[in-house]
Amino acid sequence: MRLWLKDPIAVLADGAERGLVVEDGRIVELIARGHVPSTPAQAVFDASRHVITPGLINTHHHVFQTLTRAHPKAINKELFPWLTALYPIWARHVKPEAFRLAARLAATELLMSGCTTAADHHYLFPLGLEDAVDIEVEEAHRVGIRMTVTRGSMNLSEKDGGLPPDSAVQDEDTILADCERVIARYHERGPNAKIQIALAPCSPFSVTKSLMRQTAELAAKHDCRLHTHLGETRDEDAYCLHHFECRPVDYLEETGWMSERVWLAHGIHFNDDEVARLGRAKVGVCHCPTSNMVLASGQCRTRELEAAGSPVGLGVDGSASNDNSNLIEAVRHALMLNRLTYDATVSHLDAFRWATEGSARCLGRDDIGRIAPGMAADLALFTLDELRFSGAGDPLAALVLCGAHRADRVMIDGVWKVLDGLPVDIDVARLRAEHGAAAKAFLETI
């Protein structure tokens, strides 16, 4: 069916003043001012209350962390003490059913915020949670969101000089075998992929160099992407200098990770030479403004990275270092933090670019992230009906500056997944009750 989304307030695309036409899960035509569809549409949606953006794309999350938001043992801490407080709690209490609810809740939250594609970095595989990737794929299908599920890993525990407890890590052979398994079972290639697998050793302070090298070789063999945390804190710099006698970017290069199949989470503490090297290699960086502020980690050098050639995307990061999974809120935080970092010429369009086209590039996708003919019909529609928007002149700027936090409608692959602010296939009240009950176990140690 050809569907005309007709006469929106505004569209984040040129030449679409009268909206756009969707057919068979694709955008097939943009309708300019004074025009109508070249071929009559079989259905018309009156979009006169809506501002339309591409579906937002989240390139870094940890869905299991929704179970420990604002945890009393972890609040008001920087990254390393925050992690050491939470690692034992996660290793003890993240069981399959709790993880399933966490994945469902995070995906639902993201969807309601206008996010249509998400990347989750899952690195926690204590005994009993070996099938975490399988669970997360099932829940992505259930909610209806596109997802890059990363098979993360940790094999360097406290006894070996790492940060995580022994109970939270796996051995290298187990990790690599499961990477092969989930790629073979779930990784979709080509346009319109719903589920993709990436490989994601957690961080320099939780994995060995051997695992980093072998994971890079495995990703090249299967043509999938690579992801890790890097350059997040000064403590990480000190750790790498002490244990590896090099800085994090040197570590990345030594282990075979300086390639365009790689995107990094955070990427804050890079010097000029490192920014240039990352740019030449086309290594992507996911900017996580909310988490970086919560943990006082620092400010990503977005302008310099983009100028050097690195794709820059946007991520909410885990819901224990952000405390929600709201990507349109992260767009606003990105704007504000980058204005503080640079100046007032950082615009709402920059922030939207990171959350759409930049994020798509980080994930290696050219079929999502823009409103243009041939692109996937992944769209977020926001209204300006709330008091916060009254008096706003520029509708697209208003979404960011006035603080939009919830999409009214969301479409993925041409199918409505959110209507009137609520997901069509999820009982939100029931999910809240079940997830909240599961999360109580994470407070037992207090």
UniProtKB/TrEMBL annotation:
It is an enzyme of class 3 (hydrolase). Its EC number is 3.5.4.32. Gene3D superfamilies: Metal-dependent hydrolases, Urease, subunit C, domain 1. CDD domains: ATZ_TRZ_like. The keyword Hydrolase applies. GO terms for molecular function: 8-oxoguanine deaminase activity; deaminase activity; metal ion binding. SUPFAM superfamilies: Composite domain of metallo-dependent hydrolases, Metallo-dependent hydrolases. This is 8-oxoguanine deaminase.
